[in-house]
Amino acid sequence: MDQIDRRIVQCLLQDGRASFRRIARVAGVSEQTVARRYRTLVADGAVRVRALPSHGGSREQTWFVRVQCRPDAAEALAEALAAREDTAYVSITSGGAEIVCQTRSDPAHPQGSVLHRLPRTARVLGFHAYAVLHVHLGPEAKWRAFDEPLTPAEIQLLHGDDAPAQQASDPRAELLSEADAPLLTQLALDGRTGVLDLARTTGWPRAGVSSRLEELLRGRALYLAVDLAYARFGFHAIAYLWLTVNPGSLRTTGEALSRHPETTFAAAVTGSANLLVTVTCRTTDDLYAYVADAVGALPAVTQVDVVPVLRRLKQAGTRVHNGRLTPP
Which one of 135, 150, 245, 266 is at 20 to 30 Å from 104 when CA atoms are compared? Predict the structure, then answer.
């Protein structure tokens, strides 16, 4: 990946639906070059942009599950979990004796969920499930650990006067409905699908698609997930951090961690380790420095369990094979 590719990706991390024209302003190349480079990145399994329902936008509950198993059974069990439609992330961790899985369940229909089936799986030695209470999302909660990050002026250029307004809003302001299903299906496959193509796919009027999409994004019922094959960009140290934080400082600590450049996800969860953070660094030395210096400087953190990822099989709902994103 050269500097142009990295700048295109950083623009997408700022705004997954930014037009090629706006990205070209920041990358310093033509609009045609940006479009060609982006399509190559997608075809090579390096990048995928999706629009997904936000936590709290549906009745489903999101869980993180730490599954203990025999090392000789981890691969097959992780593959089985990754093949399920109700899982989003599946990683083999802890020397190959543990699997970390993000899943969701419908309280009205618990049968058949991962949580329902795990106790009945012979290869499982034990598991702990943590319900997600609050996800820290926002303009500053973005992974941006590149060596040459975009400057504030470049970010402003990306979000120019002709860009859609960036407005803070209540994440429940525009709740999803069953009528949104055709729109959500296409956006889950490609979050950058244009309004005209969305209108063709859904059969809705173009103006209706544009209005509803703007409502859902502005109200944060949908969020843009920009998924990267991190190793392709030189980042090889991924880890889950399970932190124990004083309850009175849970919100401020989570917000602080979500703003760190290395952080890809931060959420308050149930359990004694009440804050979960995922971080992506270049090397284990960088991971050590992050834990010792950035996390160690937070006074409310009383304990940290660092769980390195050995191999990721599924990422944001996308299967990963040989370090490449392999969408359906």
Answer: 245
Three-state secondary structure string covering the chain: CCHHHHHHHHHHHHCCCCCHHHHHHHHCCCHHHHHHHHHHHHHCCCEEEEEEECCCCCCCEEEEEEEEECHHHHHHHHHHHHCCCCEEEEEEEHHHCEEEEEEEECCCCCCCCHHHHHHHCCCEEEEEEEEEEEECCCCCCCCCCCCCCCCHHHHHHHCCCCCCCCCCCCCCCCCCCHHHHHHHHHHHHCCCCCHHHHHHHHCCCHHHHHHHHHHHHHCCCEEEEEEECHHHHCCCEEEEEEEEECHHHHHHHHHHHHCCCCEEEEEEECCCCCEEEEEEECCHHHHHHHHHHHHCCCCCEEEEEEEEEEEEEEECCEEEECCEECCC
Domain limits, the chain: 234-312
Cα–Cα distances in angstroms (integers) from residue 105 to residues 6, 59, 113, 208, 249, in the given order: 36, 9, 6, 31, 28
pLDDT of 167 above 70:
no
- pLDDT band of residue 174 (cuts 50, 70, 90) is low
| Whole-prediction pTM | 0.86
CATH architecture for the domain at 234-312: 2-Layer Sandwich (3.30)
Distance CA 87, CA 161 (A): 39
